[in-house]
Amino acid sequence: MASAQSPPAKKSRSKAVLNGDSCTEAVNGKTCVQVATNADTPAEDPAVTLFREYIRIPSISRGDNYLQHYAEAVKFIQTVADDIGLPHELIEVIRSYIFTVLAIYNNVEHCSQVTPANKIVLITVEGTHPELKSVLLNSHYDVVPVFPDCWKYDAFAAHKDENGDIYGRGTQDMKCCIIWHLEALRRLKKSGVKFSRTLYITAVPDEEMGGMLGMALFIKTERFKKMNVAFALDEGLANPTEAMSVYYGERSAHWIEVTCPGNPGHGSRFIENTAVEKVEKLLRQALALPTGAKDQVRMSNATVHSVCGVCVTIYRLEGAPCLKLGDVTTINVTEIHGGITHNVVPNKFVVVLDMRFSPHEDHQEILRMVQGWLDEAGEGCTLKFIQESPKYPMTSTDDSDPWWRAFSTTCDKHSLKLEKEIFPAGTDSRYLRTLGIPCLGFSPLNHTPILLHDHNERLNERVFLRGIDIFVDLLPALCNVETTV
Predict the structure, then answer these.
(1) CA-CA distance, 373 to 308, in Å (whole number)?
(2) Global model pTM greater than 0.85
């Protein structure tokens, strides 16, 4: 733990915030809560109040006024760090450098959206042995858009109901994480706990847009290289059961655009070799894979599955009762384009496939299977990649691994039942794992419905507060790991 002194007493946040059921005011680093609705209602925990304040910032990825809201999120995190007495700095996004990164990741189409205003907050807790490799806690401050009419409460009001459920975009994904990290550090610093290794906390933008203007840029900087990271934690998912999910890898996203040409003509005629015939053949093949994958997820023993005559090997997690979504490859049709008017048979259709490849499978074999679908669909069918991702490394969860041992032992202390999984979608963890940095995705959210990106995203305050308790023990365990790596 860094030995930096707390800043002089001052009103770090003096404005009152009316949140519907309480009025909060932060003075001298302490949050006072005055409940207006019921004099017998117990005062809200200051960490919960802080969390709700963060949720009220509508930092939607590249939404209306997003630069302003990004700046508000950055300022919020800086203010909390100052209140705790944690040194921090801003990593500026540089336009010319982003173009280089986008080219590296074959995503030049994003260039029109490049802005120099994206900023990364980097908080440092210097260890007593800074020569050791460091530990990184990563989070992102951007959130996805909402459909306001589908929400029970305003998605950015952070409304808390009588059960303690806090409604708001970002409650699960993932504004809870950095509040856990900072509030755990507040307690540890107050107790005088110190770390052997330096601890870094990052808050990055753009994760919900793929991380191209966030973590993908940051890992290319000299500042990141100087951090000398040995291990990282990033976001996970909620779990509706007693168990808590921990993610040691993730699937690779491949977005494929398939063009099916055909003979055009009048809509009243019988026409041979049309584009839609080829699309029908393609869809019959593509939609068969998810169906088989769903069957595999329900199975507990079989390890080999035949899809459209192609043998796809699927490996079960050791000790798991059944496969999880991240263990299999899925395909969804997300776009179909074609036609110019109601009575003309089009000369082509374009189909976009969202494919998520499991790290347990041979990615080249899957791509050969897709090419086989095109060959069977008919002459002239072609594909191009909108996005092509590498096969990402997986982080060790073996008991002999010192990082996993420190993590799992701490979870045992809290009697947590862990379920080891492959993350079914994408997070910034993939950028870190690609560099050879072991990274676990972990959000201690059990007994919580999975509502990220969904209507009425929410998190119960009791579950939220327990997360702080877990990180109070987890941070010293990780930052004091005795290993040469």
Answers:
(1) 9
(2) no
Element (H, E) at 66: helix 66-84
Residue 28 binned pLDDT confidence (cut-offs 50, 70, 90): very low
Q: In 3-state terms, what secondary structure has residue 238?
A: coil
The pLDDT confidence band at residue 62, using thresholds 50, 70 and 90, is: confident
Residue 235 known to bind ligand: yes
Q: Are residues 230 and 356 in the same domain?
A: no
Query: Using an 8 Å Cβ cutoff, are 235 and 427 in contact?
Result: yes
- 200, 137 in Cβ contact below 8 A? yes
Torsion, Cα of 151, 153, 155, 158 (10° steps): -150
Catalytic residues: 142, 207
Are 128 and 86 found together in one domain?
yes
Mean pLDDT over residues 408-419, rounded?
98
Task: Clarify whether residues 42 and 150 are in a common domain.
Answer: yes
CA 38 to the chain's CA centroid? 38
Q: Which domain holds residue 469?
A: 13-236+427-479
Is 208 annotated as contributing to ligand binding? yes
Q: State which amino acid sits at residue 357.
A: F
**173 carries a ligand binding annotation:** yes
